[in-house]
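Appendix B, record 7
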Amino acid sequence: MGFDARVFWRLALINIASNLTTPLASLIDAMFLGHLQRVESLAGAALGSVIFDYLYWSLGFLRMSILGLTAQASGSGERQRMQEQFVQAFLFALLLGGLLFVFHPWWGELAFSLLQGEEATKRAAWNYFRGRIVSSPWVLANMVIMGWLLGLGRSAAVLRMTALANLAHIGMAYLLVTRLSWGSFGAGRASAFGDAAMSLAALPSLIGRDSPLGKAFWRSRWWRASYLAALFRLQRDLFLRSLGMTTLLALFTNIGASLGAVILASNTLLFRVYTSVAYISDGGAYAVETLTGRYAGAGERAAIRKLFVLALAAALAFTTLVALGLLWMPRPLFGTMTHHEQVIAQALADRFWLCALLLVGAAAWIYDGLHLGLTQGKALRDSMAWSVAAAAPLLWFAATRRSNDWLWAALLLFTTLRSLTLAWAARPWLRRWGR
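Structure tokens (predicted):
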């Protein structure tokens, strides 16, 4: 097989195009809400998003686990294993998503009791939650489908799915938020509509003759205990890793909410930019996951170091360019996202934190891809535990001092430690496979 940089760039560029549609939809949501008369709609959607970010990012192991396992099975030619593990993960995702929807009135009330914010902001957040929760089974099923397709290197199929989903999302957001003035509820319902559209777009990839939910489903032994054990063992570590990240990010937003609607809205705009860059960089990270798993499954160990070096250099170059743009020309970007001058002024003051965060985050994203491709869930779990533990005191300090600067400092320390600990964990793998 051997390393081929053209394969990496092809996968990365298609993944980037696919990933771009998701933050683009979020940015457009923010623009629609940011231009409403009251800032509470934007702040409420941001606060309501905390619950979904916490929930869905914690369950992101559904995508990450099946991607690495599929890539390795594909590289070693184990087609039956690849299909059966997909069916196991897919059925589990549907069951879990259904339970989340059925019981959402109870766990949703508990979640909102833990959130901080002004009363008007919390009302808008609850409306957003009601609008979006209906799509939970589709969201979790989509995670598994995307992970399986990315593990096979079928990034073009993922691009079609995400493009259709986010076009539907944007169109519904314009209709419900701008034209019908449904506010944060409309933004939530538009997001749910996009999730459903993605599931429909995925059907052709799942029901063909040789697809895992076609005729192959009835011949498979998806209840095979050894495959289930491998899947759930990896999912356990990745769940704990994702839980740590989502907990920290939820605390970041929740503490920001306690500082007032302007701070919350400003942090939302900055974090939208950060996540947009992360989605782009994740295009390279997904390619690293796919190719690392494939090379590992095929025994092509020397190719992994070459792949990693190329991906890391590309990610650092990209985030450096974005950081320079934010330093030189920030106002046009923030001005398109909202007309509230107080929010823009706060975002301009805090953009230096964002620039630093982007630079140290680039390495973490690529190291994530490397460890996921190798299905090294323990390394990812342990790195997250150390990083969250180190950042927790700064979050407490930010809450007690009511300081947004300390809040961003906690996020920067967390990201820096993630990069360093993941780099340390990768040393023996890169040294061994670089020969």
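Remarks on this record: The CA atoms of residues 77 and 298 lie 8 Å apart. The mean pLDDT is 83.
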